[in-house]
Amino acid sequence: MNEIRTADSLGLSREDLPNSYIGRSVPRPNLPKLVQGRATYTDDVVLPRMLHAAFYRSPHAHARILSIDSAAAMLVPGVVRVFTGADIAKVCDPWVAVLAHLKGMKSAPQYALPLDRATWQGEALVAVVADSRAAAEDGVAALEVTFDPLPAQTDMATALAPGAVVIHPELGDNLAFQRTAVQGDVEAAFASAHKVVEARFVSARHTGVTLEPRSIIADFSRADDTLTVHLATQAPHMIQSVLATQLHLEEGRVRVICKDVGGSFGIKVHVYPDEVAVAAISRILGRPVKFIADRFESFGSDIHARDHVITGRIGVDAQGKILAFDIDDLTGIGPYSVYPRTSAVEGNQVVNLCGGPYDFANYRCSTTVVLQNKVPTCQYRAVGHPIATAVTEGLVDMAAHAIGMDPIEMRRRNMLRDDAYPYTSPAGMRFEGLSHHASLAKLLELVPVDRIRADQTAKRHKGVYRGLGFAAFIELTNPSPFMYGIGGARISAQDGATVRMDPDGSVVVASGVTEQGQGTETILAQIVAHGVGVAVNKVRVVTGDTQNTPYGGGTWACRGAGIGGEAALQSAIALKDQILHVAGTMLQASPATLDIMLGEVVDKTTGTPRISLAEIGRVVYFRGDTLPKDLPREFVQTRHYITKEYPFAFTNGIQACWVEVDTATGMVKVLEHWCVEDCGRVINPMLVDEQVRGGIVQGLGGALYEHCVYDEQGNLLTTTMADYLVPMAAEMPEIHVGHVETPTKESLLGAKGAGEAGTAGAPGALMNAINDALRPLGAVVTEQPFTPARILRALDAI
Amino acid sequence: MKWPAIGYARATSLDELWRLQAEHGAAAQLLAGGQTLLATLAFRLSDPKILLDITRIAALRGIAVQDGVLRIGALTRHAELGRDPLVAQHAPLLAEAAPLIAHPAIRNRGTIGGSLAYADPAAELPACVVALGATIVAVSPRGERRVPAEAFFTGLLQTALAPDEIIAAVEIPGTQPTTRSRIIEVARRSGDYAMAGLAARLSLNAEGRVTSPRLVFFGVGSGPVLAARAGAALDGWVLDSAAIAAAQAALAEDLDPPADMHGPPEMKRHLARVLTFRALSPLLRASEVAE
Ligand SMILES: Cc1cc2nc3c(=O)[nH]c(=O)nc-3n(C[C@H](O)[C@H](O)[C@H](O)COP(=O)(O)OP(=O)(O)OC[C@H]3O[C@@H](n4cnc5c(N)ncnc54)[C@H](O)[C@@H]3O)c2cc1C
């Protein structure tokens, strides 16, 4: 383990090392605020002279806008003004979401509100601003918009066929991106294989359903020519840059504030045209304008994700050794690639991640990313991972079955050895250190496989079908500029933290990573308290303000703890050094003989208190005259951190799922679920476990219930929580979480990401469990969500 | 979405309600538990100008037994159905149905009158009252009218209520010691409207012979569907596996389910057969079960 003094590393209990917080389940300091309703979500912010926006959204999947008559809307009491695409375009440029390193990628210019054509049902076309949201909606209802409906391109399978509706004629076709990775000789490997298994997998369109919907207040002040934006976002600095560019403002004159955020899951890391329109409207009106998406419009305008159809082949030898994977991924992303991260990344991730846990030589994987008249898709929790994992693990299980090998043995024979690192995967991913075998061993300590198999056999005799499924996975975390920066996006892979000590000895940390409800502020407080040597309740955390935090990337791709956490640790250590330097001078002792413990400078060897931080603060801030003239006294320290050795810090893990399938109704009951994952150093076990559990629930929900359903005309049918089914507590199983810790050597903290592991593995484990249950009946399901209808069809019951 | 501006008035008696209804005419809509109505208003699906809150009208409340008939006031909340001792004794089917309806917060507000008046084809209570051979008591300024539950549900979200009528109560005939009832359903998640459900009531005499069976399906048609042929296949027969199989087979003629988001008509037919088996097989005699 990297060299941090933790109770664990010293073999002490935490009572023996009272100022140690790293590795402890410190309760979340911001929890009372959240549960007492004292949080500040964007909608809680009320500004003087504030207006409210509501949008007229396209009723058609694809239509030319013939006319917009706002006369009646302008007569609605409270309505202030109506904005069309042309009005907004006067102050706001369109954008094109491509990244240079995604070779050949194309997308069309997207305006905040389209000029003359609607390209998905739910697209914001006209904005009405009024004194209240209700009045703005009355105004929307009074708008008269006429359309010439156009044929919609909805089926991704026909997007590239001759005769397809080309959504943006200037692009020539509907192909947004294509990539094929090839390693080794795939055809020769298949030719020599003992068994080749092939299957087609479908991963359904999902959306994130954050508890707090997308929310923005844009406040342009003519007085000082600044745009202040309150926004529920994961990436304040990215949004600052985007808004400045699109609205022709200096970046320094745009400030993005993001206080409490009620969940994001990737939904809130993108540039949404309706939000940009709100900023443009404020720029025009010089008044604050608020827009809070309601649930109905969220379903039709929050990004969707995971709309993929994948065919895959695996070849194995007679001993079960994996010889090759050959995978073809097709995904539909809506009419535009989403700015600025692009909508090609999910497909690209499938190519990067398939086969990830295994040692094999021959790989071919391609992704084809096409446009369609549906809600745009983009990065959503565990981007591409659940797809790649389900495909890989589905194929591995099928191959194991084909050669009559136990699925655990199959994995044990093929997983990358724990001493194989550094290692470069056939897809070109570089792994610093993974622990597949240790994780599998730990999983098998938790899962009572023998008891489960015995129960399975006994139950089958009674007509009860239970199944056990496994899914090993890798997860990409701590991204370097290789993810977006090299493609030309102004998205920081670096993050910073400023830690300062105030006169009373309390500490404030300002960080570029953000709190979405997941506990980032808690771990920052823990790390800083540990690093400086103060009690955790003496640390205040500032996040989510581009004017008051170091520049950073925010929260995405599991980087908050690994990157933001390391910056916080380094700045805390720097502050501690500075404090000890001053203390050494005051005490006439060598700083090396001193330490800081719970806010007291102590003698390092004996622990004897020498002077409190409050006393040092008093002297430095109010009686600086008593200190030597040349004594440095900067009780503010800033450090930045960026990963340099590896493009990404990969993590790994394995999940198991135990289900019962009611073969008469097609209903699946998840009985129990297990996950062992390796996120490097665990900073707060409780938070990591709950991240894993929440991720698993999101993964199980996606595989069982969630589905953005469209009809053939491109009408979205699932626009309420009664139709888009999210997982609920009653259906969720007991989830057991275990850890293996392989810290990244790139940082002192050694933390990698943990937020997406659960989601990455759960659908694959569930699918394998269902198929294990159905195997005696000869049924297989590979199309998510695994609905009763699909299971009954697989059973030939309907 | 935000509601459009709407007026609100609370009636404390039927007379006051009639007066308010006369004043506002078609612009008025009754508000009971609000668990269906408020959601449709938020979606701006309907546009009433005023809501007339009936929840303080005493004449629409209360649960009582008179002359062997259980009378349940229209304002009875789903939660009350689930815990009322008279309901448990005289109409256990309703007590058994209550926990299947939505979630506790909704059951605390939703009313039986609202559920029957809204007539959702997948709702539990309309099917239950048809299975129980209940009578809907409708009132209007013109007086009271009794409609057999079977005739009350006339189509998708349609009932036999006249525009000025409201539901005052449901009357349920008494049970016999030989009466058996059961409600089961298949829903995607607990609390969801059912993909398919069955409310069944029948009498089973000492020899195990079935009389007056009523199998009422929900979630498989435009309203509660009384499966007459399946009932006929059971009526007068000893309940055994063959009888259940005959009832299952007869469903082919009884049901003509529409497709919905959960699946095709074949799935609903299949589920109806499964539910028939699952509802009836616990009533099989031990000798049958052992076979
Ligand atoms: C999330 C959710 C899940 C649900 N799940 C289920 C479920 O699984 N099963 C189920 O059965 N229901 C379900 N419901 C509906 C719930 O049971 C409602 O309470 C019920 O359908 C309507 O009752 P209410 O008292 O709330 O009526 P309201 O919403 O107040 O009114 C509904 C309609 O009936 C009219 N009305 C009300 N009372 C009378 C009366 N006495 N006479 C004439 N007209 C009247 C109103 O004018 C209105 O048109 C669910 C609701 C929600 C919000």
TrEMBL record, chain A:
GO terms for molecular function: iron ion binding; oxidoreductase activity. Residues 36-151 form the Aldehyde oxidase/xanthine dehydrogenase a/b hammerhead domain. SUPFAM superfamilies: CO dehydrogenase molybdoprotein N-domain-like (SSF54665), Molybdenum cofactor-binding domain (SSF56003). Keywords: Molybdenum, Oxidoreductase. The keyword Cell membrane does not apply. The keyword Kinase does not apply. It comes from the Bacteria. PANTHER family: ALDEHYDE OXIDASE 1-RELATED (PTHR11908:SF132), XANTHINE DEHYDROGENASE (PTHR11908). This is Carbon monoxide dehydrogenase. It comes from Neoroseomonas lacus. The lineage of its organism: Bacteria, Pseudomonadati, Pseudomonadota, Alphaproteobacteria, Acetobacterales.
Automatic annotation (TrEMBL), chain B:
It holds the Pfam family CO_deh_flav_C. The lineage of its organism: Bacteria, Pseudomonadati, Pseudomonadota, Alphaproteobacteria, Acetobacterales. The keyword Flavoprotein applies. InterPro entries: CO_DH_flav_C, CO_DH_flav_C_dom_sf, Diverse_Substr_Oxidored, FAD-bd_PCMH, FAD-bd_PCMH-like_sf, FAD-bd_PCMH_sub1, FAD-bd_PCMH_sub2, Mopterin_DH_FAD-bd. The keyword Flavoprotein applies. Residues 1-177 form the FAD-binding PCMH-type domain. One of its GO terms (molecular function) is oxidoreductase activity. SMART domains: CO_deh_flav_C. The gene is cutM. This is Molybdopterin dehydrogenase. Keywords: FAD, Flavoprotein, Oxidoreductase. It comes from Neoroseomonas lacus.
